[in-house]
Amino acid sequence: MAYRRTERVEARLADNRARILQATRHLVAENGFRGSQIAAVASLAGVAVGTVYRYFPAKADLFAEIVRTVSQREVDVLRQIAESGGPASERLAAAVRAFASRALRGRCLAAAVMAEPVDPEVDDVRLEYRRIHYGTFERIIREGIAAGEFPTQDVAASAACLVGAFMEGLVSPLAFESAGDDRENASLIDAIVRFAMRAVSGTARPT
Fold it and tell me: Which of 148, 150, 196, 147 is nearest to 170 (CA)?
């Protein structure tokens, strides 16, 4: 008879995995990927080092899962804005503003997830989620063209360039060890939003 895990065992295994991911996310938010060692993850999660490797055979697997979970949350936020209705120009600005604001609030985690040098497996996940973001902005741009808010353009190219531009605009500020003050952050966010609006519509519409 094949062994079947009991509900209790399944719950314990799920709890271990959740604690490992929570501990890793905490360490990456404090130290980036480079400063997040498996031994520290295990200690913070309250498990043995071998237990971490049982769930994630390589450090790259663990870091890829962190990128996946953090990126999925951003996908959900931007999709909600894209689907909220109203003028496409307002939704475009709101989506870019939300992404930039959230990144600056969790700057070390955002810098790690978006740009810190890592293994190819992690880069593959990054690219996967960038493509999802492209699709979100393609929807907004396409609806804006249909409504006469944006000029006719190559929607896929515009969306890809837009996402690449606003992410790149955040990378250097996020890399600074000391966070800017509220005024500096607000000024940066406004500049990124203005650029996004000009790139797609040729104008900078305040929101």
Answer: 196
User: How big is the chain by its Cα radius of gyration, in Å?
Assistant: 20
Alpha-carbon distance of 55 to 51, in angstroms, equals 7
Decide if 4 contacts 32 (C-beta within 8 A).
no
pLDDT of 1 higher than 50:
no
**Tens-digit pLDDT profile for residues 47-88:** 999 999 999 999 999 999 999 999 999 999 999 999 999 999
- In the chain, the amino acid numbered 136 is T
For 15-43, letters b (16+ CB in 10 Å) and e give ebbebbbebbbbbbbeebbeebebebbbe
Amino acid type, 117: P
AA letter at 49: V
Q: What is the largest CA-CA distance in the chain?
A: 69
How far apart are alpha carbons 26 and 121 in whole angstroms? 21
List of domains in the chain = 1-57 (1.10.10.60), 60-201 (1.10.357.10)
- The pLDDT of 173-189, averaged and rounded, is 79
Higher pLDDT among residues 203 and 5, named by residue = 203
Q: Tell me the pLDDT tens digit for each residue of 100-109.
A: 999 999 999 9
